[in-house]
Every structure is written in C-alpha cells, then in structure tokens.
Design brief:
Strand content: 5-15%
Strand order of the largest sheet: 2-1-3-4-5-10
Radius of gyration: 20 Å
Structural class: alpha/beta
Helix content: 40-55%
Distance between the termini: 38 Å
Largest sheet: 6 strands, parallel
Bound molecules: NADPH dihydro-nicotinamide-adenine-dinucleotide phosphate
Order of helices and strands: EHEHEHHEHEEHEEEHHEEHEEHHE
Shape: globular
Length: 352
C-alpha cells in the first residue's frame, strides 16, 4: 500500500464513466486505486459491501456503479432500476461511512429534475415538481442518493458530494439496440444502415427537440475536479440541503442536427427521415452549469470530434468481438435487406 496517496475505490470502473474516471486518476499519477467487477462484488448485497470496506481500508470513493439505460429500459424494468440503484448507493454510502471513508462522490443524473422545470435546469429546481413518469423510479433513486450524502454530511460530518451529469457518450458506451442512449443508438443504426446500404434511416419525432451531450472524458475530469476541490470551496457553492452540482456543456443540439452529424461521422449517405407522427418528448433539456463554471471547470470536447472518437470506439469494439456479439436488431425497427430497406430509430425522447 502506498502511504502517500489516498486509497481510492472506483465503484463501477468497468462502466462508461467509471472507466473514464480510472483513466483520469491514472493520468494524475494515482496508483493506490481499488476496483472490483460486478462479478467480484455485488454492491446490492450489504454483507459483501461491508466485507469489502472492512478489508480494503478505503479513503475516497467514486460511486459510478448504477443500473443505467434509456427510456425503453427504464420503462421496461422500473423495479430493477429503483431496487438496484437504491441498494447499491445505500450500501456503498453507509458502509463507506461505517469504515471511515472521508470523501465520496455520488453520480446522479439530470433526470432528477421536474419534467416541466424551466430551462436551463438549475440545481435548486430539485423537487419543485413532478418527475418524468417513464424514468421516475430511476430518478427517485438518484434523488435518494443525493439525500443520503447530505444526511450523512449533516449527521456525521462526512464530505460526500454529488454531481448530476447530462447525457453522456464516448468510448465504453452501451450500443445495445434497445437499452442504449441516443448517441450510441444513432451510431449503431447509421453504421448498420451504411453496411446494409439502406436508402433511408427513419428517426422518430420531428428532430426538433434540443438535448445536451457531454463526452465521457469531460465527465470524468469534472468528477475528479469536483472531488478535489477544497471542502470550503465546495461548501461555498452548495448548501447543506442542496449539495449537488450539474455537469454538462451548457450547450444543446437539435436531435436532427445530431443525427446529421452522426451520419456524417459514420459515412452514411442515405436519407434521414423524421417521423413527426411519433412523440417528441420535452422540447428542450439543458443543464445550467453556472455553478460548475464558477468552480473552475468547463467542457472541452467539441461534439463533432467526440462523435468521431465514439465511432472509432464502436468500430474497435466490433473488431475486438470479431463477430457482432451485440444482440440482433429487433424486428420492430425494420429490415435491412437491400437497397430499398430503411432503418427506423425510436430514439429515447427523454433520455436520462
Ligand atoms: P454503465 O452502465 O456504463 O456502468 C455502470 C457500472 O456499474 C457497470 O460496470 C455495472 O456492471 C456496474 N454495476 C451496476 N450495478 C451493479 C451492482 N449491483 N453491483 C456491482 N456493480 C454494478 O453506466 P455509466 O458509466 O453510464 O453511468 C455511471 C453513472 O453515471 C451512473 O450513476 C449513472 O446513473 C450516471 N449517469 C450516466 C449517464 C449516461 O449518459 N451514461 C447520464 C447521467 C448519469 P455490469 O454492467 O456488470 O452490471
């Protein structure tokens, strides 16, 4: 064990964000980092989490393990979303406190904000209205995670912080045809449409809704930045009962523009058709990043470049797997048999 460096546990280090946080901490020269795969440690199991903290003598925790997915997954598996996320965060936060962990960063989501909150979404809009019903169980769990951190800070004097990311994308993303978020979903659809020489890709909705997207390495540097702020600086920008910080770019993009950018990145030259008969969801979803900016951090990765890197990562994952280990496209998105075929994308209107 290295005595000079804090002993850091990254929960969820194989995931999109956890793996990026690991890269950033390695780049900073941290060597005293502890990781466990899901197979090695079930974070929903309190006994296992207790034994882990007992043995490992952790100083600092990045809590990036969670059950995550787009609107389809949230709608199909609401019980799994609320149960797994509540259990994971309650176990990790409680056992971290019991075993003397002084600092912890909890990763929430922009889904915590009310469905009809004004835009851009400010931290203080939390719990000022009804949540989006499709991902309410996930959002409730995330709100509970923020409140766990605040409650342990109030009662036990811990320094547990929370960040609320906007929609993330990048290497390590989930390209599942039904459970993925909008950018990996578009990358996969346009790539498969290119390979199949499909004449058109149909996207549900008008293409007009505006959404915000943050490259995952930016999310990781923001997480480490927030975690490494002096306690008095963090406290000066947050409140005892309002302790979370939004993490985003502060800029949004129309879904139609995003689709065109992804098609260009992938090299798909067919038509992009928007099916306006399908629902659009909320017209705009953008985080207010005033607090994070005041704390000295801003996003760096331009969307066009981030999409190139994400597409390269997708191609590498296909090459590594040799055969497409990803599940086949479901029948409901259309066929890919020949020139005339189109591919439809039911994009998650209220991604979270
Ligand atoms: P990923 O699904 O990529 O990674 C989550 C990791 O957590 C996986 O490695 C998963 O392992 C692990 N995990 C889940 N449940 C358990 C469990 N019960 N025990 C042990 N390990 C578990 O998610 P992201 O990296 O995308 O998300 C990280 C955080 O950021 C989450 O809190 C998420 O809510 C938040 N966030 C993500 C956004 C995004 O766009 N991706 C947007 C906003 C917030 P396995 O896969 O083996 O189950």
């Amino acid at each position: 064990m290295n005595d000079k460096q804090p002993r850091i546990y990254i929960a969820g280090h194989n995931g999109l964000v956890g793996s990026a946080i690991l890269r950033v901490l390695h780049a900073q020269g941290h060597t005293n980092i502890v990781t466990r795969s899901h197979a090695e440690l079930e974070l929903a199991n309190q006994a296992q989490v207790r034994a882990f903290f007992q043995t490992e003598k952790i100083d600092v925790v990045y809590l990036a393990a969670a059950k995550v997915g787009g609107i389809h997954a949230n709608n199909t598996f609401p019980a799994e979303f609320i149960f797994n996320n509540l259990m994971v965060q309650a176990n990790v936060i409680h056992e971290a406190w019991r075993h003397g962990v002084r600092k912890l960063l909890f990763l929430g989501s922009s889904c915590i904000y009310p469905r009809l909150a004004p835009q851009p979404l400010r931290e203080e809009y939390l719990m000022n209205g009804m949540l989006e019903p499709t991902n309410e169980p996930y959002a409730i769990a995330k709100i509970a995670g923020i409140k766990l951190c605040e409650s342990y800070n109030r009662q036990y004097g811990t320094d547990y912080r929370s960040v609320m990311p906007t929609n993330l994308y990048g290497p390590g993303d989930n390209f599942h045809p039904e459970n993925s978020h909008v950018i990996p979903g578009l990358i996969r659809r346009f790539h498969e449409a290119k390979v199949a020489k499909a004449a058109e890709v149909v996207i549900w909705g008008s293409g007009k809704p505006m959404r915000e997207f943050l490259y995952v390495d930016d999310m990781a540097t923001a997480s480490v930045h927030v975690m490494q702020l002096a306690p008095e600086v963090y406290r000066a920008h947050t409140g005892t009962m309002l302790s979370h910080i939004n993490v985003g770019t502060g800029e949004d993009t129309a879904i139609g523009e995003l689709a065109a950018l992804v098609a260009k990145t992938v090299g798909y030259t067919g038509r992009i058709v928007f099916d306006s008969s399908k629902p659009d969801g909320t017209p705009r979803k953008l985080l207010d990043v005033t607090k994070l900016t005041a704390l000295g951090w801003s996003a760096r990765m331009p969307l066009a470049r981030g999409l190139q890197l994400a597409y390269q990562a997708y191609l590498s994952s296909l090459a590594t797997l040799a055969s497409p280990a990803l599940p086949a496209l479901p029948a409901s998105v259309g066929t890919l048999s020949g020139e005339a075929a189109g591919v439809s994308l039911a994009w998650p209107q209220s991604v979270c």
